[in-house]
Amino acid sequence: MYKFLQKPLYNILMQKTLPFLLTLILTACSLPQNTSPTATLPPPIESALPSETPIPPTSTSTPEFTATATQTLTPTPTVTPTYAVLRGKVLVEHANCRYGPGAPYLYKYGLVGGSNLEIIGRLDDANWLEIQAIGGDNPCWVKANLMEVQGDLLSIAPVYPDLAPLPLSPYYNPLTLRDVSREGNQVTIRWYGMALRAGDEEFENAPLYLAEIWACENGEIHFTPYGLWEEKITFTDEKGCSERSYARIYFSEKHGYAGPTEMEFPE
Length: 267
Description:
Elements: H1 2-30, E1 86-90, E2 94-98, E3 107-112, E4 116-122, E5 128-133, E6 140-143, E7 147-150, E8 176-183, E9 186-192, E10 209-217, E11 220-228, E12 232-236, E13 246-253, E14 256-264
Antiparallel strand pairs: 1-4, 1-7, 2-3, 4-5, 5-6, 8-9, 9-12, 10-11, 10-13, 13-14
């Protein structure tokens, strides 16, 4: 009897549980597998900065300078003349030595006959000489024919007017020019006069004015000084000189000269 009941019961159980077991198996197969996650690296992000790409060097043409022979002008050396200081002896018993190269200039001091002196300068034509005591420093001007000179006068430096200025008066103003006129070769200069204060004259009836004239004669400039009492002078100035003609006028008093007032001449 037990065997009879056992088999049907088995069949019933199989009929009831088999479908359930099949369903359970199928459901389990459809579920996602529980696998461990695998770390996945994100894709590399490209940098926004441009990659440094080597740039091949660019060949830059550099201008080449070719040396060109240039003619160099060699300056002509300026020849500086060498002048001498000579010795001379006073030939006359007494000689006047003046502030400038001519008789119209103020008297400075006297020379004693037989004195030996240094000759340090001259006029261009060497008619007047600038002298001083040997080793001295107080020069004055004497007429050349009053001296016995040891050596060539033309070897002495020409110094007037640039290197031997006249003494200037501290008490009077320069003269005022009126006009300069020409008629042919005759030039006339006029100026406004001045009067000396009492005691300022060099001597009685001494000239009030000194006129220094550089005028053209026979194609050369000649220098002539004039002592004057009136306010004008007329002289000859020819054409044909390469250098300019000009004049200087001073007011003269015993302490020196007021001026100069300078002028050139009309053509």
